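FIELD: query
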Amino acid sequence: MKIAHTGLNISEGKVKYDDPIVLALADKFLPKKVTPYYFDFISDNYEAADIIVVARDQILDLLIHDIDKLENRRERISEPDERAILDRILLSMEEETPLCDKTFTDSDREYLQKLSLISIKPTLLIDGDTVDMKEFIPRAMEKADHMFFYTAGKEEVHAWLIHCGDDAKTCAGKIHTDLARGFIKAEIVTVDNMLKCHSMNDAGKRGLSQLVDKDFIIPANTVIDIRFNV
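FIELD: result
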């Protein structure tokens, strides 16, 4: 995930997230390999970002890009209905709030998407210029409607980033395309229950795991094992 930021003391490039769940699973299973998730922080490159994070007192540095684009478009058009939409949106931006946090009609939001405005992307405002990654990353993921699922065992503990609402087959494809292509079932268990067990097999014997089909929506904080045949 690419995170563009303005006005914050964050290192550029890929930054490892010390996910407490990954750490707990690694302590439990002592795997040969631990693969945490690395977020890619980019300064000010809003167009390339999946989410934007801005110090609250510098929000205008972000919004001015959208305001300029909206005002330039308003100057070029004569169609009264479109001008009315632009006037309404520009007026709302005087509140210094990202467009993603505003309530629009479906038609207005569809119109905004076509304009490729920056602050229509998930935008998180931070008080101050210093962030605590353990607190900040979950907030950013929630804002962008993302979450982790996990694979865990003696070979590897791995965090995988997905959209909230993704199904089991989509998760399988994140791990490897062959797992999605030959998907049979997914065995899932909550992280809390997995930490009580010696393995996924042990979780099954204790009745703590569940077999689900490809269209099952995966909850947050889930450990997954994919059954497949290719």
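FIELD: remark
The mean pLDDT is 93.
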